[in-house]
Amino acid sequence: MTARRLRASLKGWGGVGAMAVALAVTALFALLLPLSSARGEGTAGIGGQGVARGTQAKAGSCTDGTAQDRSPAPSGDESGDTIAAIKERGYLSVGVDQNSYRWGYRDPNSTKKSSDLEGFDIDLAREIAKEILGSPTAVRFHAIPTNQRVPAIQNGQVDMVVRTMTITCDRLKDVAFSDPYFVTGQQVLAPKASDIKGYDKSLAEQRICTASGSTAHDKLAADQKAGRLASSADISTTVPNQLDCLVRLQLGQVDAVVTDGALAASQAAQDPTVELKGSTFTTEYYGVAMKRGPEDLVRRVNQVLVDYVKSGGWQASYDKWLSPTLGADSPSSKPPTT
After folding, report:
1. 83: which residues sit within 8 A by CB, 6+ positions away?
2. Which residues pair with 285 in a beta bridge?
């Protein structure tokens, strides 16, 4: 793709000014949500670097990680108090992101009077609402910061979180997870002109930004303590939302960002001055997070995921939202349990 076409397709996204506007919009809508929104249409995107497989063990191998291993409910099974309460209420309450490009975001270039939430995670949330309540619009979205995903579930603010949330052993102590619906891994994002090569010694004496409460920050802290990451790397900068790291990078306040490769690819598509550095260095599995205890909703969501993949819905959503940044080949990202 030529530089001219790249700049044209990124109009409205790149640059510090656009990011500042995006953050202002985020703050505004966080006050206005929950809301119900109509399904949005996608726009053409940018080709990008794919996500490689890493070496981290699947969360299902955790001795305490049985929540996401619960078998799907029999097709059509609607039994259970949790699902009954959702049906009586008439809508599904879902925690999502609204500033992760192509996952859960509002397109500032939309020609519509109102910019609806759209993206891969939004499609999945609507699919779950359709299967449980009969309509993809029977859902109310709540904008949840990265570090508030678990509390939002535990305090009953939402029924579930569909927000690029990695299944981990620690999180399985606090919330239940569905089976995985996406595979990715941690990756480094830095300016193209940077000497940073990837997750290696080139991060020495560099300022690295991560989202607080994220698996990225946990990984960096553990690796630095174990000597696998240079002790001179500054990992003190954490932010509520991972997109805030891109803004810090654009402002020159940090030298690199570490986040999920799938999200990093989308951020690179937002700003042509940054790029993915090296390959992914973990393997992580996104799951739909729900409250621990009742199993009916977890099992029902597991069945929705099975049907979503078999019907081609998962692939159609991937092609629409993620193939422009992750590439047309989706098998490495497709969930392993279907």
Report:
1. 132, 296, 297, 300
2. 183
Q: What is the pLDDT of residues 222-236, one digit of tens each?
A: 999 999 999 999 999
Nearest 10 degrees: CA dihedral of 231, 233, 239, 245? -160
Q: Which helix (H) or strand (E) holds 286?
A: strand 284-286
Which residue is listed with tokens 């937002």? 270
Q: Which residues pair with 187 in a beta bridge?
A: 259
Return the DSSP state at 89: H
Nearest of 269, 222, 250, 229 to residue 105 by alpha carbon: 269
Lookup: tokens for 333: 């990202």
Exposed/middle/buried for 76, CB within 10 Å: 0-12, 13-18, 19+? exposed
Q: Is the pTM of this model over 0.85?
A: no
Q: For residue 327, give every residue at least 6 positions away whose Cβ sits within 8 Å of its Cβ, in sequence order, or none.
A: 47, 48, 49, 50
CA angle 108, 262, 301 (to 5 degrees): 90
User: Which residues, in sequence order, are bridge partners of residue 275?
Assistant: 190
CB atoms within 10 A of CB 193: 9
Structure tokens of 129? 């609402």
- Angle between helix 261-270 and helix 243-250 axes, rounded to 10 deg: 50
Q: What angle do CA 120, 121, 126 make, to 5 degrees?
A: 100
Dig out the tokens for 235 from the structure: 């990992």
Say which residues have a Cβ less than 8 Å from residue 28's Cβ, sequence separation at least 6: none
Q: What is the pLDDT of residues 15-60, one digit of tens each?
A: 434 444 344 434 333 333 433 333 333 332 323 333 333 333 344 4
C-alpha to C-alpha distance for 110 and 129, rounded to whole angstroms = 25
Continuous segment of H or E residues that includes residue 8: helix 3-9
**At which residue do the structure tokens 């993809």 appear?**
136
